[in-house]
Amino acid sequence: MQWDVILQALPKLLQGVVLTLELVALSCIAGLIFAIPMGIARASTRWYVRSLPYGYIFLFRGTPLLVQLFLVYYGLAQFEAVRQGPLWPYLRDPFWCAVITMTMHTTAYIAEIVRGALQAVPAGEIEAARALGMSKTQTLLFITLPRAIRIGLPAYSNEVILMLKGSALASTVTLLELTGMARTIIARTYLPVEIFFAAGVLYLLIAYVLVLGFKLLEKVLRVDTGQLGR
Amino acid sequence: MNNCKKILLALAAVFALVSQAAVADKLRIGTEGAYPPFNLTDASGKVVGFDMDIAHALCAKMKAECEVVTSDWDGIIPALNAKKFDFIVASMSITDERKQAVDFTDPYYTNKLQFIGPKSAKVAVDKAGLKGKAVGTQRATIAGEWLEKNMGDAVDLKLYDTQENAYLDLSSGRIDLVLGDVFVNWGWLKSDAGKEFEFKGEPVFDNDKIGIAVRKNDPLREKLNAALKEIIADGTYKKINDQYFPFSIL
Question: Taking a C-beta distance cutoff of 8 angstroms, is the pair A210, A25 a contact?
Fold first, then answer.
């Protein structure tokens, strides 16, 4: 193990960490925003409401993130219409391609989490709200959703950590996030063990901070006291 | 006790012989399989190309049975040292940095680096002309190293996993130029996708010798050198060369 090589590579690797965090933060927040309505629709009892989200989730859960990323980055750029279109300034940029793909990917997973959480809200609580004279919308906003957020939060934190590791694929579209930076340094030093070890430790640290953050959030939202059967 | 030792020693000797024989029988050629026309994977999944023709010709001269193993480009040297294969025939440039990790045979061809870009754009391939241009190349190649060293502060350098991906982004207009091996660029310019593009300027680098990499101090190196001399002397090399290029690349 050549520690001095790791030390020299550290500033560059930290630059990569910043980009990794940007990718994960943007896609996981945007993903959550899109996933909540999609999850609500997915949990609907009406087939025509739930079929569209069902199809979306089926498509994005059933294909690898790498394939999706290549289709968005290299695939869309093949079409003249896309290259002349208004979105090209964004689709031209590998950063936005990665953010868009990761968002679409994680939205599918989070929507499933939202659906599961909504369906896990005890029926008695919803009935109680309705019996007190709350409308369907009021019940959803004030009773079902807050309960579902507590139920779904641990699963969501899991998804964020999965996306942290999934973001490594952005290195295949020229982005120098943590993995891309590590591979570029290895191309110069031929020391994959040292550099990947350092990158692995950095991923671990990020994951650790995320776990701590979600633990705190669970405490604030009192997830543990909100469990079923209490 | 003594007998025991003798038996153990004998067993060890047999094992050593057997394992050596196994190694000697079958040589594994490491290559990338994504670098046309030198090494590429054809429709049936077989790795073909100039590198492979040379490698098989060398194996025939060494009377060795060879099989081809593919590896990602940026992990190919570590894989050689981890004994995933015995020598790399993958259009690898001989550089001082790589020589610290592996040994090289005599060069089996010489490469030049030259820019390509759209026919419609006028570019001067010097520091001033390239300022602010997005230039793509493959990660962990001599072209990447050259760009970082000579143009690092002037150009927006984009590193790709394969040369093919750099061409894809050149055709979609995400990048202005690609720097790459002149033969590989030449192959792409001839293809349908490369119609709208051309070489820009003169080759920027022409002392790029391509060799076969072997593990440090591996006697295989001398065998490969001898075989290489033979195929050049008996015309096998020229025959392979002419199949791919209308000019000699030795």
Answer: no
Average the pLDDT over A33-58 and give the result: 96
Nearest-CA residue of chain A relative to B148? A188
pLDDT at A229 over 60: no
Q: Provide the CATH topology of domain A3-220.
A: MetI-like fold (1.10.3720)
My answer on whether B87 and B161 are in the same domain is no
Please judge whether A190 and B101 are an interchain contact, meaning their C-beta atoms are less than 8 angstroms apart: yes
Q: Do A190 and B144 touch (CB under 8 A)?
A: no
Only one residue has tokens 């061409």, namely: B167
Q: Please give the DSSP secondary-structure letter assigned to residue B194.
A: G
Kindly state whether residue B250 falls inside one of the protein's structural domains.
no
Is A78 an interface residue toward B (CB < 8 Å)? yes
Per the structure, the count of domains in chain B is 2
Which chain A positions have a beta carbon within 8 Å of B168's beta carbon?
74, 77-78
Find the helix or strand (DSSP H, E) in which B26 lies: strand B26-31
Query: Where does the pLDDT of residue A230 fall: very low under 50, low under 70, confident under 90, or very high at 90 and above?
Result: very low
> Is the confidence at residue B23, as pLDDT, over 70?
no
* Domain extent listing, chain A: 3-220
Whether B29 and B60 have beta carbons less than 8 Å apart is answered as no
What residues of B are in contact with residue A187 (Cβ under 8 Å)? 74, 139-140, 144, 159
Q: A188 in contact with B at a CB cutoff of 8 Å?
A: yes
The backbone torsions φ and ψ at residue B234, rounded to the nearest 5 degrees and listed phi first, read -90, 5
Mean pLDDT, rounded, for B41-54: 95
Average pLDDT over every residue of B43-64: 95
Residues B124 and B189 placed together within one structural domain of the fold: yes
- Tell me if B249 is assigned to some domain: no
pLDDT at residue A79 greater than cutoff 70? yes
Domain boundaries, position B59: 2-110+209-244
Task: Provide the ipTM.
Answer: 0.81
Q: A184 touching B, CB under 8 A?
A: yes
**Which residues on B lie below 8 Å from A180 (Cβ)?**
159
- In this prediction, residues A27-34 reach a mean pLDDT of 97
B101 plus B118 within the same structural domain: no
Interface contact flag, B172 A83, Cβ < 8 Å: yes
Burial track A88-119 (b if 16+ CB lie within 10 A, e otherwise):
beebbebbbbbbbbbbbbbbbbbbbbbbbbbe
Q: Within this chain, do residues B106 and B6 fall inside the same structural domain, yes or no?
A: yes
**Per-residue pLDDT tens over the stretch B122-161:** 988 888 999 999 999 999 888 999 999 999 889 999 999 9
| Contact with chain B for residue A187, Cβ under 8 A | yes
CB contact under 8 A, B168 and A77: yes
